[in-house]
DNA sequence: GTCTATACCTAGATAGAC
DNA sequence: GTCTATCTAGGTATAGAC
């Protein structure tokens, strides 16, 4: 029997809102990032929307979480395959250029969340760690296979790749002609060889 | 004879305000980035400050310009020397970790300025181009000297280094333990060798 | 040139009807 | 659960006195 005040329904509605919000932000950007605009877009009043998410920041973090969730199943294949880091990563970056609003939301919030008191702070810290861990592992495999320089440790390299992709996003927001996948691919290639003998 | 309404004085005062604002933001951060806070800090009323700068955005762009100006004379040595890119760049990054407020201001505004209508848009576009041009030239010299891989062209590499430093700043804002100069140095080292022979 | 005071706006949060 | 209406806060910009 359904619970009193059945709140499975509330959860489902939340998910529905998030999915819709994700589409809207992706397509139309998020302009001034007001709750009201998201509310209009998902077909609710501002108060109606806040009923589900409490505060503005919580709403936006949830949108980013939902994005991660969707991207994860969409883009993650076998982390052990050689294609994982090179191709899947490129695919994510390529995909990002189709969702400028999400890139903007992400970039903006990641700076605002610098303050430890910010409601999104923990999200960004945890996400960063997760990303770097996954990356480092995949990179280490490539190093062990001799396909990637070991002149630099996998953890640092993971951090660098994270920085490159975040930094390129900012450049790209400023100028949509910036070729994000091209730049990342080029870096990857440049690092793809083992270090040379001291003197050939 | 001094001009009527002598405005050399106004310019001097502007400079004075900017210099002071730079110090204040560098040291104390810029919290919520309101005009009032800067005004308090430089010892003017909010209205008094806007008398000099017109709008909030203009004020903030001017602060960033002033920062560039100061850093330029402070950190730029001979662009032809081998130390230029490796050491001077590291010095700038090292210095940045002593001025968190400026890093935050810069990072935040660079995202907000994505909109072509934003008053700081042109500043960021021009600055990015200038940075990359300077970098690319220095990197090309290193390549020609055989000290840096030429598996990747200098322009792309310049873009990547820009992305790395912007991206690391965001990571560092989130977690002050991040070693920015260390990561950049490691990347530089990893790229420091020419590509190896096909099979040793 | 600088201040005080205030107008005005935007936006998030809340109360209460339905 | 959702809306309308309203409250409140905070911030920029401006008017006008000194």
From TrEMBL, chains A, B:
The keyword Signal does not apply. Transmembrane segments: none annotated. This is TetR family transcriptional regulator. PROSITE patterns: HTH_TETR_2. It comes from the Bacteria. Residues 11-71 form the HTH tetR-type domain. Residues 34-53 bind DNA. It comes from Microbacterium mangrovi. Keywords: DNA-binding, Repressor, Transcription, Transcription regulation. Pfam families: TetR_C_6, TetR_N. GO terms for molecular function: DNA binding.
């Amino acid at each position: 029997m359904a619970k009193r005040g059945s709140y499975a329904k509330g959860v489902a509605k939340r998910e529905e809102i998030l999915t819709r919000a994700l589409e809207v932000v992706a397509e139309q950007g998020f302009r001034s990032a007001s709750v009201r605009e998201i509310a209009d877009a998902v077909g609710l009043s501002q108060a109606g929307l806040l009923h589900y998410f409490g505060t503005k920041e919580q709403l936006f973090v949830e949108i980013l979480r939902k994005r991660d969730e969707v991207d994860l199943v969409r883009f993650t294949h076998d982390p052990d395959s050689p294609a994982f880091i090179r191709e899947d990563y490129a695919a994510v970056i390529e995909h990002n250029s189709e969702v400028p609003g999400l890139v903007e939301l992400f970039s903006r919030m990641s700076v605002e969340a610098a303050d430890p008191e910010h409601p999104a702070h923990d999200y960004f810290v945890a996400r960063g760690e997760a990303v770097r861990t996954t990356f480092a592992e995949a990179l280490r495999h490539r190093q062990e296979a001799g396909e990637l320089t070991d002149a630099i440790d996998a953890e640092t390299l993971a951090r660098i790749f994270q920085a490159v992709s975040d930094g390129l996003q900012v450049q790209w927001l400023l100028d949509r002609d910036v070729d994000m996948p091209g730049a990342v691919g080029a870096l990857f290639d440049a690092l793809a060889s083992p270090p040379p003998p001291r003197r050939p």
